[in-house]
Amino acid sequence: MLISEAIQRVKDYCCSTDAFTGKPIDPATTRDQVTYGNVDQPCTGIVTCIWPTAGVIRRAGELGANLIVTHEALFWNHGDHQDVVADNRTYQAKRELLDAWGGAVWRCHDYIHAGVPLEADGSLADGIFYGFAWKLGWLGYRTGDLFKCMDYEIPEVSGRELATSLVERLGLNGTRLVGDPEARVRHVRVPMHIMGGPADTEAANAMDAEGVDAFVTMELIDFTTCEYVRDAGMLGQGKCAVAIGHFNLEEPGMEYMAEWLPTALGEGAPEVTFVPMGDTYQYVTAAR
Predict the structure, then answer these.
(1) Counting CB atoms within 10 angstroms of each CB, which of 24, 25, 218, 261 has the fewest?
(2) Contact assessment for residue 199 and residue 250, using Cβ atoms and an 8 Å cutoff
């Protein structure tokens, strides 16, 4: 099986309608491009990852895998434009590492979010957030739109207990907890990116109106929704947010991809291995 054939089989297995636009995924504009290497060579093995750090690339070489399937960009910018970082020494060193490895990198973002037949009845679910629910043991706690896997009714815990559980189950170095640490949490929501736009206010209002006790977030800037959660906690409304980070939250989806990818590839599938990137964050905490 050529690398190009493996990539096409993954596309064919996933839904081809963009989950965010509702339109067919356009080959010319999709994020899901080959961002490095030659795909016209036999596939010797596949590594799935949230993004290909230097460590992930080295591990792929050790495993004898020459295809990395990543969810996020290789060279730190939307579209993986290499010209804008061409003079950057870290870019140059990473290219040297990639060339020495000799494989190809394919980004799988739009297709895995578009839907993968993961449910017991064969229906579709967002492959990234389904993997998050799977990793936490929360598949049976999903509520609302089951395709999206963004809302959960979990057994009641405190905000602090929720944060501790996330750190333990996701293998993190730590996390940030905003709001009331003793909030009684049952309804948990994973909001979309909280980065300062109008959607932040919508998220805050929905948290209030829909009885969401805790957000588990990707991005969470200090302004907007974060401010709301702090005030809600101080005013006795029992709200909190656990900010674990974008890659930490989405990485389990690429871990779970290694479970279903052999089925998608079918006969002659090469070995598939998930390689974690490790927690993005290290924490220096105050001595108390």
Answers:
(1) 24
(2) no
